[in-house]
Amino acid sequence: MLKYIDEFRNPNLVKSVVVRIHGEFSGKAVKFMEVCGGHTVTIFKYGIQKLLPERVYLISGPGCPVCVTDVAFIDKAIALAHRKNVIITSFGDMIRVPGSRTSLQREKGNGIDLRICYSPMDALTIARDNPGKEVVFLGIGFETTAPTVAAAIKLAADNNVRNFSVLSAHKTMPQAMQALLDSGEIDIHGFICPGHVSAITGIHIYDFIAEKYNIPCVVSGFEPLDMLESILMLIRQINSDNATVENQYARSVREYGNQTAIEIMNEVFEAVDTEWRGIGTIPGSGLGIRTDYANYDAERKFDISIESVRECPGCICGDIMRGVKVPWDCKLFAKVCHPEDPKGSCMVSNEGTCATWYKYAAKENG
Amino acid sequence: MISDKRITLAHGSGGLQTHKLIKNLFRKYFSNKYLNPLEDSALLKTGTENLLFTTDSHVIKPLFYPGGNIGKLAVSGTVNDLAVCGAVPQWISCGMIIEEGFSIDDLEKIVISMKQTAEDAGVQIVTGDTKVVERGNADGIYINTAGIGTRIEGVDLGVHNIQPGDMVIINGYIGDHGTAIITTREKFPINIDIKSDCRPLNKETIALLSKLDGIRIMRDPTRGGVATTLNEFVENQGYGVQIIEKNCPIRPVVSGLCEPLGFDPLYLANEGKLIIVVASDEAQNVIEILKSFPENDNPCIIGEVVEEPKGKVVMETSIGSSRILDMLSGEMLPRIC
Amino acid sequence: MCLAVPMKVTEIDGMEAVAEVGGAKYRINLTMMPDIQPGDYVIVHAGFAIEKLDEASALETLQIWQDIAEFDQNKQSR
Fold it and tell me: Selecting from 3.40.50.2000, 3.30.1330.10, 3.20.20.70, 3.90.1150.10, what CATH number does the domain B39-151 have?
């Protein structure tokens, strides 16, 4: 009976894919960007890079929602958290992210009421259980996560749960990839496209990359066999001098995605310009809450004022996310910037480039 | 370097921040020859006798969890800290800080559990202290236990004994306690049938040490998990440890908690596990002795001491590649990305 | 990003369901996958089923690589 996990970690199958990669790779150096932080984790957790030919480089893109959430968002969340009667609810990922001056985790020491959720539905439950409090959920993530938060907002509206709201920093993937490509600073020969984003959006959101920029794209799953097969598919596209969008992860990703999820997302959210930490403002790349659901938009519900935003001097998270630098190029990395005291957002998330490098590859971490 | 201006929960996670706090603050000021090795117990020489002395505070949420409660944990934890240092645990103290309004029935359950665990371990609770604090100033109850044991004659355990070629053994499944606690404590909509492995381990350690000469070091991988304990073995040493991922015993249900939440079982707490480093020719004997105690549900060799890379724990991954296994850094939090 | 894991749906109760991985049971939401049946495998992200796993596609991937792996092994042993 297929369980969809261990089968895709079978060392014998992995070995055969690796043999093919070595056999078919032309030897001319290539850089593949894995856009999604989940892929970054698989690469480090299983030691994928070590299995590849030396001149196949994997670089991490902007697909870690924690890493790209801007400082002002954290500052706003902290400002809200310090209000009377506010409970902040969040995925665990966000709480160590440094804002201008502090993080939610540190403010917990100063008495804010912060609750970690596995699902946005948990936040809604907290709101129902605490009618005298305002429960604010920190909405982060790409197209995979946005529909789950939209569903929670819809359910809150349907059931008139008035003390629930969302501070949205949701973002969409294609605009970010386009912004990256247009920045002209990167040298990428293939994209390993995010499988779970694609499960919602379908695979055609990457068409412009293959067509306009002539760069091969493969939508990939997250198990070692998936990632290696995707790398092989990219190499084959390069060898045949072809750039197209292929779907390696067909078991979870339908060509046109999950229409129900897209509808829910579009009902609650609309495209807005948004700030990406380290990249800047990307037009139409954010998801703001529509006016129909204004009562559930923490931004509108509360008048949030923050002091001026301050980013850590010396932090090169932006360059790292654009793939032009690696963590060792940063003078803060592993010296004053650690997972337990992150300066930049790439160190914060478990999947941030700096955190994964630190955890799995750090040469010195004293 | 202590960079945070305030204590965060990560300082108590048993990982990197805890180690830094201990070394850079406590040891800096308390420094003496008994403390400085930072073993689980201090070795004190009084005349002819070698005593081991340890203390451990227990703050756990929830107080009652599948497979145990704070009382059982408070006795087991201290017994185990003595046991892994080569002691026969003898006497235990019991300091209780109780919150105003705490249920006396619950307190009795905890006390009965402590008594039973002490009997199992063959130790006596010989002194104690009780304080009650105002409501809101403690999470129900905190228990501190200190323990004294006599060192088994001729035993010398420590990282200085470890040599390349030694085997690394664990007595059973990894992460059961952490899984039981997380699923009971957190309000996540998850239902997992598992019991904490919390129990005293001194019968095993005494049997091992009295029958074998090749035991180099033992530890109970509590907070910070197996990965953190292994890192303690190799830190600043002229050898490394290589672990084989597929040989690490992990229950499917523990993976079932870890995979969706983004946890790693090797960082989950254990309260009834022993990691033993032993000369390779005695490895099978260790397994046999462990197997003679039915509670050790799956003793096995999970890796070995290697010459390179020095000071690192390397794991051979399930697909045959390798990666560095670091100490726990930061609290483990469920994540979506 | 987007940590999501395959789980087997065991019980359905309206828009909610129980799904299992390794014996760990999760309460999940089916709003995005209203047509799921007990016994189906779904990809779960943040407590929501976001897509159904397609057995045929999965088996196809595995079969291709199993055949290649066998071929590789035969070649090696010859």
Answer: 3.30.1330.10
